[in-house]
């Protein structure tokens, strides 16, 4: 379905401004300019406490906020790990505040795999290329550019906004959103809702453009499997080899087929997909319906069940020595509320002699696809891309909304981007050659400006 770009209505010429290859550099929209600048700060977060840090990018962002007359506060959870928060006064102070947030860190990029320098902020073929172009310096820039539109000439948003740029999202937010929520919760006083990344982008469904609005997130459990055995000489008979036992456990877990279980969100999504495609959801299975979403199907299929992927192996220190322990990293994403059940099932799968050490754990979230914010998002998108349906979805990954939820703030993924059908946007999260069309950034800025002005 996603391979038929000709069935998608062309963007209006106004929306394509700045997107043609020859003129892009000269007419760069503010959004692309900020996103490019942010990509040039290498804020790589390697995980497990190793990071290049976010301070330079945080100071850049703070400077943009100051230029708009705001008073940003900078918070260092650790040296170099800087988050920025600023409050924008709304017209109607009786309304609860809305948190609009992004993260400043990115995952590592190996330049050898990329066709451009991942930290150069290259503009090519009407797209901005670089680590963070998709996740999520694009939205960071859309937030700043739309703020300029809303308050730059003395205007105000409808309600108070809490603008936050977090450090450390890519390592679970311990040194960013979780730090701020725990140590400085007053920053979010009066806020009840939040919008941020991994939603709001368009997909192609049955030849028609549709938008995915993220209304939930799976839970995250990062565990280490540890097999212990006896150390010994590599030349001997050795039945109790930790590496062999760990390898068996990892293979079993990696090949385990987790059953489909629909939540309110995924049930509603599949129902909507079936309606749009005009098929009977009782006759077309959940996986098949998910596959109809084309490029987004990787995300959506993973939202229908738990996943538990092996992501790392560590064992041994010498070719002729059997080590006494072997370890594997497993990235578990369970459906919301099933965390303990899934951990017990994993223990069954790997066997009682494998120790499971929880390294990091965070909750799942699910919010109903209704209410004033949803109505505002749907009507705003309708104004900017008439006739394109908005569908709820459960994110198979996680965002800083998890941390905000501990303060009772309902978070949504809404970083609006109207994308061409040929672009496999979901694959570029943490992927190679991350890039975003310049005209999609312009669209996002415009939609966000409209939403913040009116909601
Ligand atoms: Zn992200």
UniProtKB/TrEMBL annotation:
InterPro entries assigned to the protein according to its UniProt record, in alphabetical order: ArgE/DapE_CS, Bact_exopeptidase_dim_dom, Peptidase_M20, Peptidase_M20_dimer, Peptidase_M20A
Pfam families cross-referenced by the UniProt entry: M20_dimer (PF07687), Peptidase_M20 (PF01546)
Cofactor(s) required, per the database record: Zn(2+)
Peptidase M20 dimerisation domain ranges (all copies): 215-351
GTP-binding as UniProt keyword: no
An annotated Gene Ontology molecular function: hydrolase activity
Biased composition (Low complexity): 9-22
Statement: the UniProt record of this protein carries the keyword Hydrolase: yes
Name of this chain's protein: Acetylornithine deacetylase/Succinyl-diaminopimelate desuccinylase
Family: Belongs to the peptidase M20A family.
Keyword entries, A-Z: Hydrolase, Metal-binding, Zinc
Region listing for Disordered, in residue ranges: 1-22
């Amino acid at each position: 379905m996603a391979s038929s770009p000709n069935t998608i209505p062309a963007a209006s010429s106004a929306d394509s401004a700045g997107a043609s290859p020859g003129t892009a550099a000269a007419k760069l929209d503010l959004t692309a300019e900020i996103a490019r600048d942010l990509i040039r700060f290498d804020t790589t977060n390697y995980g497990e406490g190793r990071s290049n840090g976010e301070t330079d990018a945080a100071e850049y962002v703070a400077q943009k906020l100051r230029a708009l007359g705001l008073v940003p506060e900078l918070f260092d959870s650790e040296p170099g790990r800087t988050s920025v928060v600023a409050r924008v006064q709304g017209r109607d102070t009786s309304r609860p505040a809305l948190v609009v947030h992004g993260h400043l860190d990115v995952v590592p990029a190996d330049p050898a795999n990329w066709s451009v320098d991942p930290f150069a902020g290259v503009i090519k073929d009407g797209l901005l290329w670089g680590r963070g172009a998709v996740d999520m310096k694009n939205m960071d820039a859309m937030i700043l550019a739309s703020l300029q539109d809303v308050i730059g000439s003395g205007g105000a948003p409808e309600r108070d906004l809490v603008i936050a740029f977090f450090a450390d999202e890519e390592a679970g937010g311990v040194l960013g959103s979780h730090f701020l929520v725990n140590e400085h919760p007053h920053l979010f006083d009066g806020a009840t809702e939040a919008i941020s990344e991994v939603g709001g982008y368009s997909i192609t469904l049955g030849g028609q453009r549709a938008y995915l609005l993220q209304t939930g997130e799976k839970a995250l459990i990062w565990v280490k499997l540890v097999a212990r055995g006896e150390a010994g000489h590599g030349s001997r008979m050795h039945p109790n080899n930790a590496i062999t036992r760990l390898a068996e456990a990892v293979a079993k877990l990696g090949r385990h087929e987790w059953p489909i279980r629909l939540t309110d969100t995924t049930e509603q999504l599949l129902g909507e997909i079936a309606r749009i495609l005009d098929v009977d959801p009782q006759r077309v299975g959940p996986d098949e319906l998910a596959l109809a979403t084309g490029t987004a199907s990787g995300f959506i299929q993973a939202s229908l069940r738990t996943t538990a992927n092996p992501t790392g192996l560590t064992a041994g220190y010498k070719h002729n020595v059997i080590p006494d322990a072997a370890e594997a990293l497993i990235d578990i994403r369970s459906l919301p509320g099933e965390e303990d059940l899934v951990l017990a099932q994993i223990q069954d799968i790997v066997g009682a002699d494998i120790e499971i050490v929880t390294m990091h754990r965070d909750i799942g979230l699910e919010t109903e696809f209704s209410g004033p914010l949803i109505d505002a998002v749907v009507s705003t998108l309708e104004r900017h891309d008439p006739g394109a349906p908005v569908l709820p979805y459960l994110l198979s990954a996680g965002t800083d909304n998890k941390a905000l939820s501990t303060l009772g703030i309902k978070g949504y993924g809404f970083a609006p981007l109207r994308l061409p059908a040929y672009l496999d946007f979901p694959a570029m999260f943490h992927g190679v050659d991350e890039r975003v069309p310049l005209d999609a950034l312009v669209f996002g800025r415009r939609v966000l400006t409209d939403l913040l002005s009116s909601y």
